[in-house]
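In this section we walk through a basic example: taking a raw amino acid sequence and producing a predicted 3D structure, encoded as discrete structure tokens. The instruction is simple. Fold the sequence below.
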Amino acid sequence: MIKTYHELCRFETFEDRYEYLKLGGQVGHSTFGFDRWINQTFYASWEWKRVRQYVFVRDNGCALGVSGYEIHKEMLIHHINPMESEDIVHGEEWILDPKYLITTTHDTHNAIHYGDISMLKKPYVERTPGDTRLW
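The resulting token sequence is shown next.
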């Protein structure tokens, strides 16, 4: 199933968007292996830098595009559908198409790839005077 940003936006909560995106990969499984130089060259290109900036602005600097999950450091742009080295070599247009990209953090990105919900950022809980609840 090809996933898109448009479909992702149908889910309102961060958790629901995470569930839509998660891939259930395995820690230690090599994505690019010896072809890592190919994706590193791609991520250094001006085309990628341009679309990366566009997606970050589109998502209002929020992880998974959800308000309340603003990113202050370590922002990543995630390919909603996993990219392979052949996609870069063959110049597949979708790898630079914003409808297949989403803003995220490093931890959320890893949670998407490896299916570990405990890595997700917890929402901010505002404390009030007299509040005795533990976080």
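Looking at the output, two observations stand out. The mean pLDDT is 86. The first strand starts at residue 75 and ends at 79. In the next section we compare this with other chains.
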